């Protein structure tokens, strides 16, 4: 077994010990990525599973007209790539490093042996896939039922909630650019910038370089607050 497999705090592998894996030929390695380096492209046929151990990664799709859509930003410890590992199909999204990053690469054959031999890993994987389907369903509903302003508000609320900062005066540091927010919610940068400016003038937020301060998170999260005029 490669020692690095259990060196990191990886939720999918929580509770495993070297003894659990002594009879399995587990192969893994650490890969270093530079900022904006692509780990793999859409339709690539490499079927390994990856764990983010440092840095920041994004899952991206490029439309036929060249527009970028950001599907996911990964947190430290997250795993991805398991769909291709399970069915042997091509990658559905590209993975790009937003900054210098490290990933632990678990070879497909090793991953398949793990989920076959260790029920806890298999159960966690099923729960993770179920959660992902629910997230995609919610996201699709947002695209078809919400205005751009409502999507921006939902995006900020979700980010604040995930960071434990959904309270007055909280500061969200290391914020994505307006272009990245737009790519995440299916809008364009100009409209997102206009929405954020409107929210700043209304006293809901304060904005700075790569940071947003929440002045009135209750108003931010209130679906009854009307969208800015002319933004849809």
From TrEMBL:
Tagged with keyword Transcription regulation: yes
Organism superkingdom: Bacteria
Domain HTH crp-type positions: 146-218
Entry keyword Transcription regulation: yes
Location of the Cyclic nucleotide-binding domain: 12-132
Transmembrane regions: none
InterPro entries linked to this entry: cNMP-bd_dom (IPR000595), cNMP-bd_dom_sf (IPR018490), Env_Response_Regulators (IPR050397), HTH_CRP (IPR012318), RmlC-like_jellyroll (IPR014710), WH-like_DNA-bd_sf (IPR036388), WH_DNA-bd_sf (IPR036390)
Annotated keywords: DNA-binding, Transcription, Transcription regulation
PANTHER family referenced in this protein's UniProt entry, alphabetically: CRP FAMILY TRANSCRIPTIONAL REGULATORY PROTEIN, REGULATORY PROTEIN YEIL
Protein name (record): Crp/Fnr family transcriptional regulator
Native organism: Paracoccus onchidii
